[in-house]
Amino acid sequence: MEHRLLGGSGFKVPALSLGTATFGGGNEFFRAWGSTDVAEAKRLIDIALDAGCTMVDSADAYSGGLAEEILGKAMAGRRNRLLISTKATFKTGDGPNDLGSSRHHLVAACEASLKRLGTDYIDLWQMHGFDAQTPVEETMRALDDLVCAGKVRYIGCSNFSGWHLMKAQAIADRYGWTRYVAHQLYYSLVGRDYEWELMPLAIDQKVGAVVWSPLAGGQLTGKIRRGQPAPAGTRHATIGSLGPTIPEAQFFDIVDLLDAVARETGRSVSQVALNWVLQRPTISTVVIGARNESQLRDNLGAVDFKLSADQMARLDKVSQRPLAYPYWHQRRTSMDRNPPPVEVYK
Q1: Please, are residues 80 and 30 in contact by the beta-carbon 8 Å criterion?
Q2: pLDDT by residue (tens digit) across 109-162?
Q3: Would you list the domain boundaries of the chain?
Q4: CB-based contacts of 106, cutoff 8 Å, min separation 6
């Protein structure tokens, strides 16, 4: 599998990472994603490793820590073959300090994740969301201390806005602390908001994108078509999509074109949708989730081919959405001084 640099670091990660939100099924929400146990997790990791997919992504909030526990047991004896990415910030208990990005919570959360994972270091640790109540200086200093202590090797953020990320980078630069090299974010053919501000920022600040939900919560797997709703029991049928909605007519135009390109390439709809994401600027790794072996094998096939320039352009065009302010104004008035990072939204 192709390995790519993670942002401006010298750390290489596989183009695809295995997500673990399906591990555990610790509550109703996560059971809709999956209920993978230790034996099944071992099998999925075996398949991923055979394909060169060496990074596994988790979070302390997935099934109340159960996903990390299962991952720790499933990777026992082969930690040296795997890169571990996990996250903190979301609520993990009933106490007033059991959430957020304060030094108090982050130190405790890191120690708890290390224990559940059965390891003494985390390769990539990400802030799962922005904490507006904690000074950014406190968060970045705590993260730098954990890196210096050897408990964390690289840091990233997730679901930040542009100003959240840029303020954090500026503070890290001011004090010589560790910078964010990754941003885990929502991006797919039906959710392209990332391109408006965060992608240009990532290019400028050398922050690698770690993409979550590249199939839009199961909407782009080929299971949903015109006159064919999501099958009963699927995640989308149970809890819907976590991302934004787009006009139904445009959604089905995207699905129709994915079907056509899948026929042209002899690939599955999921593989085409994933390959489109993999070819976009700033993408370091795309997180794929799988309830079972067949889903995982299909998703892993997304790296075995490359969509043509014409196919990419057609998918770009059918999935374009109206820009929010001030981006539509910038496109009209400042293209010579402020061009987009990719040739879209003209």
Answers
A1: no
A2: 999 999 999 999 999 999 999 999 999 999 999 999 999 999 999 999 999 999
A3: 3-333
A4: 88, 139, 142, 143, 146
Taking the CB of residue 99, how many other CB atoms lie within 10 A of it? 20
Nearest CA among 254, 246, 245, 247 for reference residue 225:
254
Exposure of 151 in the CB half-sphere (CA atoms within 13 A): 18
Which of 62, 154, 187, 194 is an active site residue?
Answer: 62
**What's the token pair of residue 109?**
């959360």
- Is 85 in contact with 157 (CB distance < 8 Å)? no
- Token pair of 80, please? 């040296």
Question: Is the Cα dihedral 310, 312, 318, 320 positive or negative?
Answer: negative
3-333 sits in which CATH class? alpha beta
Rounded CA separation 237/239 (Å): 6
**Of 191, 295, 301, which is closest to residue 250 (Cα–Cα)?**
191
Task: Let me know how long the chain is.
Answer: 346
Q: H-type helices in the chain, by residue range?
A: 28-31, 38-50, 66-74, 103-117, 136-148, 162-175, 198-205, 235-239, 248-265, 269-278, 293-300, 309-318, 327-333
* Nearest of 187, 183, 240, 234 to residue 212 by alpha carbon: 187
Per-residue model confidence (pLDDT) at position 108: 98
* Token pair of 83 as six digits: 């890169």
Q: Is-contact 140 103, C-beta < 8 A?
A: no
Task: Answer yes or no: 154 catalytic.
Answer: no
Give the pair of three-digit tokens for residue 128: 């799962």
Q: Which amino acid is at 118?
A: G
Burial state string for 49-85 with b = 16 or more CB within 10 A and e = fewer than 16: bebebbbbbbbbbbbbbbbbbbbbbbbeeeeeebbbb
- Dihedral sign computed on CA atoms, order 278, 284, 289, 290: positive
Name the residue with higher pLDDT: 46 or 291. 46
**Residue 284 and residue 13 in contact, taking contact as beta carbons nearer than 8 Å:** yes
Residue 336, pLDDT above cutoff 50 = yes
